[in-house]
Every structure is written in C-alpha cells, then in structure tokens.
Design brief:
The protein is mainly β and 280 residues long. The chain is 11% helix and 42% strand. The protein has 2 domains: 32 residues; 240 residues, Peptidase G1 (Jelly Rolls). The protein has a 10-stranded mixed beta sheet with strand order 1-10-9-8-7-14-5-19-4-3, with no helix packed on it. A hairpin with a 2-residue loop joins strand 8 and strand 9.
Length: 280
C-alpha cells in the first residue's frame, strides 16, 4: 500500500508546491508597479529635484494689459497659457488637446518644456495635473507623458510619444476627494487613466499651461526648450470653453522681465497658442 501511494503522494506534493509558488507569484505581481509607469524621468539624466509641473511662480513685474485689446496678462517665470480662477471648490474639471511639439535641440545644455492641464496652482500650493514634455538632453530630443499631484513627485509614463502626436488630457474631480487624470495619445493609440483619492486641495483654478519646469534642488527655473509653437484646442473648465469664462492670460518672463514665449488670444472655442522666444 505504501508503495502504491508513493507516486500519487509525490504528485500531490509537487502540485501543492506549484500552487503555492503560483500564489506567491500572483501576490508579487499584485504589488508590482504598473508596467507603463516609472518614477524616473525617461530619456536621460535630469537636474536635481526636476519636476515637470508645479505651482505658478509670479514674475517680479506688475501685471500688464496687452496692446489695443486691453487683455489682462499675469506675468510668471515658469507658466504661460490661460487660467480661470474662483473661490475654493469652484472647479471640478479641466481639459484640452494639443499636437506634441518638436523640440529643437543644440549644444550641451539640458532644456525642458512641459504642456499640461490642471486644477489649482495659480494661487494655491498644490496642482493636480497631467501632460507631456518636449525636452532636450543636450542635443538629443526627449518626449514623454506624465501626471503629478504636486507637491508629490511626478509619475512618468513609458508609453511612446513622438512630435506631431495628437495629445489630449483632462483632470476631473468627482465623488468624495477622487481625482481622475487622463492622458491620451490618439496617434499611438494609448490612453492612461489614473484615479487618485486626495483631500485638502482648493480647486480654486483651472489652467492649460506651457511651462519651464522648476528644479526644486536649486530653486531655479530650468531653461525652456525651443518647442516652436504649440497650439491648444478645446481648452475647457467645468465643461465650458475657457474662452467664454474671462480667463487670465499668462506670459512667461525671465528674471530681466523679457518674454520667454508669447501667448496668443484665446478663441470662444478655447483655442490658443504659445510660441517660444528664448530659453532663459
């Protein structure tokens, strides 16, 4: 009898061991990072403390009006684009589309240009945001997508992004402290959606922004990559075009007060553009 059962018992032991190993593997897979994200910036070494998004840093000059239009412009050392502002809790969604710009890179200096949509950051100390970058690792261009619940660190996507890609993004607040951040590359056929539970954010602004990222390690603004011109379309907040909500135009300046890029007027459909002028 012992001999008769020896093989089946051995088989049972092997089977149980395999099941335990499979369970352990599944547990490991369940706790592993999502394969399409990374905490390390794709492409190359970044400046210490680099973050592709963050709050608006106001310029040293007074706010101005633009030419004959009388359009109000706020000056910033790291933002350009448009923002709508209100009381705490005023904004629940923001969205826009754009064509990924080509980064024109030369020399050895690393340069950066981020394009994103977000809630908060205009007059608060947090930003809930997602977007893409056209950076320069010296003379080599680098393109990627990301999301960030600033001041938390950014999370980068490993999905391929190329110049000319049709990008779209949105940030939506719903339920009880749930933020859904969506970044889509229609050209490459991928969409990344992140749902994050966070509390304590103001939601007092919504914005569509071109940014020269800040290096928190040194406290300085990083050089703005030559992105040419980026054209945003369908910029909206709370489901309505930002162009119909008396938005604030933001122009990016350097420490000498010179414009680093230009911000066009915004149409009633939420279309506008930023055009690069200088890196710093």
């Amino acid at each position: 009898m012992l001999r008769r059962w020896s093989i089946p018992l051995a088989t049972v032991v092997i089977a149980v061991g395999s099941l335990l190993g499979l369970a352990a593997g599944n547990a490991s897979a369940a706790t592993a990072h999502h394969p399409s994200t990374t905490s390390v910036r794709p492409g190359g070494a970044a400046a210490s403390g680099f973050k592709p998004g963050g709050i608006m840093l106001k310029g040293s000059g007074a706010a101005r009006t633009e030419g004959r239009t009388g359009r109000y412009q706020a000056e910033s050392t790291n933002w350009s684009g448009y923002a709508v502002t209100g009381a705490n809790g005023a904004f629940k969604s923001v969205s826009a589309s754009w064509t990924q710009p080509t980064a024109t890179c030369s020399g050895r200096t690393d340069k950066y240009a981020a394009f994103w949509v977000g809630l908060d950051g205009y007059s608060s100390d947090s930003v809930e945001q997602t977007g893409s970058d056209s950076d320069c690792d010296g003379s080599s261009p680098d393109y990627y997508g990301w999301y960030e619940m600033y001041p938390a660190d950014p999370v980068y996507y490993t999905n391929t992004v190329k110049p000319g890609d049709a990008m779209s993004a949105s940030v939506t607040f719903s339920g009880t402290d749930t933020y859904t951040l969506v970044l889509k590359d229609s050209t490459r056929g991928w969409t990344e959606t992140k749902s994050i539970n966070e509390s304590g954010f103001d939601r007092s602004s919504a914005e569509v922004i071109t940014e020269a990222p800040c290096c928190t390690g040194s406290g300085g603004i990083l050089p703005l990559a030559d992105f040419g011109t980026i054209k945003y379309t369908a910029a909206s907040a709370n489901g309505s075009s930002m162009g119909t909500q008396s938005p604030t135009s933001i122009v990016m300046i350097n420490n000498s007060g010179e414009d680093k890029d230009s911000t066009s007027s915004i149409s009633s459909s939420g279309a506008f553009s930023n055009t690069w002028i200088r890196s710093s």
